[in-house]
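Friendly challenge for the regulars: who can give me the structure tokens for this chain first? No prize, just bragging rights.
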Amino acid sequence: LYEFGRDDFPLPGMVATLADIVEQLENGRGCALIRGLDASRYDEETLKIIYWGLGLHWGEPVSQNARGQLIGHVRNQDRDYSSKNVRGYTTNARISPHCDPVDIVGLLCLQPARTGGQSSICSSSTIYHEIAQRRPDLLKVLCRRFHIDRKGEIPEGDDETYELAVFYPEEERVTCIYARDFIDAAQRHPHIPPLTAEQADALDLVDELASSDELRLDIDFLPGDIQFLHNHQILHARTSYQDWPEPERRRHLLRLWLSAADGRSLPADFEARYGTIEPGQPRGGIRVPGATLQAPLEP
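First reply, four minutes later:
Bragging rights claimed.
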């Protein structure tokens, strides 16, 4: 699947639309929802080809886990989210506001849940400015580095934890990287100092604002919907959900992590998580020794 490129999937009728989405993702609101794909017309393999081909117009897919998956299955695998090294997308639990370690994340809905499973998004730039007004003392904390766990997905030669701040302000924009559960997970290591009360308060405020009715946008996925988010300026979350009893009707989304073709410049600190940070080069994702790039039909 991953051996064909953008030129092999021309979309002449969508040139203007695709260009507008790229502009909105990278320089505008940071989110886009494509609606109208009739997912019932295609089998899963064909949908993957369509999804992959669309994604190539925004960037290059990168691995999402230690197995080297280039298209990820967001589906409940009956795992315990509170257990060590379990990723939230393999459960039906609520996932708190976060961003993924890549430029752009895409979600294609094959099957929505019976109840719940809403996608909730929020502007991390808006959160930054809200905190600047309400608690500038805590904003200073969020602009300093936290210890972050890799949850067992460790690149060759790297440590099991690394350090990044939540916010990196520049003159015209703010770049954010945030995943509270990975910060909390780092606390299990005896060499990592415990979070201070001030750090905990600062992270709590980010979560509170990202989940607030004032700043949050909830999206109900329909079959065929494709959501694209710019991780550097959008936090996303998910409500818990209940599946249908029939296996074929269980909630099922396909995920792409895309390294943007012309992404924004990133702070030097991001090298600890992204590997290279050079725009236009594959950056971000999960890279571990022995992983083989793949796009399996099953999770």
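The mean pLDDT is 92. Residues 54 and 268 are 30 Å apart (CA to CA). Your move, everyone else.
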